Amino acid sequence: MESTEKQIERSIKRRPKGTLFFPDDFSKFGSSDAVRKALERLTAKEHIIRVAQGIYARPKESKYIGVAMPSAEEIAEAIIKRDKLRTVPTGIYALNALGLSTQIPMKIILLTDGSPREIRIGKRTINFRKTTPSNLLAKGKISRLVIQALKEIGNGNVSEKEEFRIIDLLKKEDRKDLEHDISLAPAWIQKIMKKAL
């Protein structure tokens, strides 16, 4: 009978380098306590790295910096997938995702229907903030980011260049999704979004 640690190690080796995983992914190999201890031992042996509490990764080597840690964005995506959360990025993160800001947000703020929590990854944090379901109704990948980005810029502060870029991006959105999402936005944002139609 193979030990929990050996089974987990084999399972990890089958995954591509850089893959993120959680203790729950190995529940079939033993009790939660046995899994936790096995992950601690594998971390000590440097087979895996602990990225944040309860989040691990198979290390990816970079010839320039040695072990490359997964980005906060990749970790946020993995948590969203695992917990089947509905989320929408806000603030600087939404602006950055749309290419409207080159500033790398130290704090990623995601509105969610899941439980609120904060996860520290090095100097950065991922902040899941509980919100009302109405804030998560937008369907379009681009349009939901646009609504949050414009809220961050603020009414009356949108430059011509930003508006032009936003309209350009919205033209790539699925028309049905865009029409649906426009109706959810505040009136001043609707005005800008309608220009994409």
Explain what the structure shows.
The chain has 8 helices and 9 strands. The chain is elongated. Helix 1 (4-13) crosses helix 2 and helix 4 crosses helix 5 (141-153). Strand 8 (117-121) and strand 9 form a beta hairpin. It has 197 residues and is α+β, with helices and mostly antiparallel strands. Strands 6-7-9-8 form a 4-stranded mixed β-sheet. Strands 1-3-2 form a 3-stranded antiparallel β-sheet, with helices on both faces. The chain has 2 domains: 4-67, Arc Repressor Mutant, subunit A (Orthogonal Bundle), CATH 1.10.10; 72-194, no CATH class.
User: For the largest beta sheet, what order do the strands appear in spatially?
Assistant: 6-7-9-8
Number of domains: 2
Q: What string gives the helices and strands in order?
A: HEHEEEEHEHEEEHHHH
Count of helices? 8
The averaged pLDDT comes out at 92
Rounded Rg = 20 Å
Helix content: 40-55%
Rough outline: elongated
Report the uncertain regions.
none
Instruction: Report the span from N to C terminus.
Output: 63 Å
How can the largest sheet be summarized? 4 strands, mixed
Percent of residues in β-strands? 15-25%
How many strands in all? 9
Give the class from helix and strand content and strand pairing.
alpha+beta
